[in-house]
Amino acid sequence: MSSQEEQGASRPVLEDARDFAGVPDDTERLWTPHRMAYIGGENKPVDPHDGEQCPFCAGPRRSDEDALIVHRGRTAYAILNLYPYNAGHLLVCPYRHVSDYTELTEEEVAEVAEITRTAMRVIREVSAPAGFNLGMNQGEVAGAGIAAHLHQHVVPRWAGDANFLPIVARTKAVPILLADTRRLYAEAWPGTGRP
């Protein structure tokens, strides 16, 4: 074999992965094409400052079932995340279209905090998580999907929920339908008149 042939033999051959989609090999795959809606920005407002386009402004104008609203307060409300990090992932939003925590009124701050506390109690009662992640992403650079309308994340956590799927497959297994989660949380919310 010539030195030129030896060099050619040692070069890796690049293959386009799209040519092998669905071809069996030794790699397990979990296909999640539904996540492309989130990745591609579906349902994201073209103009984030337009309250008419904002999903957190539009949600309260719809029925609780259609919008996935769990609870409506006076200045803020709780809604399920349409693209949850974990099963039962809630968002607490002021009705007012504000982007920064410092723009909230004292009344809004108090109600966002109280709805967050109540959401934690309800989620514990219904789903028995081992813990929670709470937080607000302020601005797109901080990870806010809808940066123009403030929202607090209430994410229930269980031991083992951070398994290989999100890390390797960039996929999250959510074992319950959003409509079922909304119904269970709304029924368990204090003051809803349940027995």
What is the CA-CA span between the terminal residues? Answer: 84 Å
Task: Please describe the biggest sheet, giving its number of strands, its sense, and whether it closes into a barrel.
Answer: 5 strands, antiparallel
Q: Tally the helices: what do you get?
A: 7
As for the CATH topology, it is HIT family, subunit A
Number of domains: 1
Amount of beta strand: 5-15%
- The strand line-up of the biggest sheet is 1-2-3-5-4
Level-2 CATH architecture = 2-Layer Sandwich
Oligomer: single chain
Given the C-alpha coordinates, what overall shape results? globular
- How many β-strand runs? 5
Alpha-carbon Rg, integer: 22 Å
Structural class: alpha+beta
Order of helices and strands: HHHHEEEHEEHH
Describe the structure.
This is HIT domain-containing protein. It contains seven helices and five strands. With 195 residues, the protein is α+β, with helices and mostly antiparallel strands. It has one domain: HIT family, subunit A (2-Layer Sandwich). A five-stranded antiparallel β-sheet has the order 1-2-3-5-4. The longest helix has 22 residues.
